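Appendix C reproduces, verbatim, an entry submitted by the partner laboratory led by Prof. M.T., so that reviewers can inspect both the input and the predicted structure.
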Amino acid sequence: MPVLSIILVNYKVPYFLEQCLLSVEKAATGLAVEVIVVDNAPGDGSIEYLAPRFPSVRFLEADQNLGFAKACNWGFRESRGCYILFLNPDTILSEDCLHRSIDFLSEKPQAGALGIRMIDGTGNFLPESKRAFPHPATAFYKISGLATLFPRSPRFARYHLGHLSPFSDQAIDVIAGAYFLVRRSVLEQVGLFDEQFFMYGEDIDLSYRIQQAGYTNYYFSGSSILHFKGESTKKQNIRYVKLFYGAMSLFVKKHRLPNRMFTVGIQIGIGLRAMMAFLGRGASRAKKKDLRFPVVVIGIEKSLLEIQNRYPEQSPEAFIRLEPDAPAEVLTRRLHELNKRIRINDLIFCLDDVTHRQTFLLMEQWRDRFPYRFYSSGAATILPLRKA
């Protein structure tokens, strides 16, 4: 019997899922794990591509887009593990996160579910790693920008619990669906994801029911993951906004929380986010990335050659290799020197040569100073994909 069942829902992101599954293989070393992928985009070729690469993974193919909640519930019913991890496909795990997460949860009998420290593709901490339950006041502070102006305020930054340190373990309200670890026994007691939530909000609702049953939800800072965030929905920004705020409204109504002010706030939020999305598209067109080289590769010589083969039109001089086992201060100094002389268009981490944990630490140290990409030997692409 597996100790842990990992359930992923794929919707047209086969290359992100590929990297995620590679990271799961490393993180699962020494642990009895089963991996179940529910494919929500029939006919897009994801299963045909991934199944031969990952023969130990069980793929379930839906005949339509079931939505996140329903697909996760299907995966759960096919699982056998004592612990269940609902995991987004656009994530990369550090090597120690599964072991350390389970150890943390097992040592706390009253722990209901666990979320983890997340960073995005630019090396910045993702504030949704720890959240409070929706409330009219917190919604207003977030939409009005007060939460951004006062990011550490217990009052104004309540939505993302900005007053709590991201570097220490905390009792929180909401576990993010990107990495939602829970005991099977807890799910059997409180129920699965509510399938009224097609996408977004189902993690808030389940977190709420777990807490109402007397358990404590935790944010775990002892390990981390990379979450590219929103790869399945980023091309539909306005639709995302409507789905997200609609899910918040459904949660408030379902649990009979004060909703009149919240509903007004949701409508304002949809309008503001729609306007920002429109302006953002214009800005992104105006700031189209210069795709000229050079590229810096942190990896061994073999990895460098594999990456060079992906760019047959470029000369070898377009690539600069840094040793993956060099101390962080050496890599930082070398990059600083390079950055003074040239514009680094890509900084590629070879994930077979530098540990995921070290990669995340370096990214957090450098933040968005460089455009990061990620390569694993044999993978179809270097992620994230270049934007046209």
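The chain has two domains: 4-132+156-229, 295-375. Additional entries are available on request from the coordinating office.
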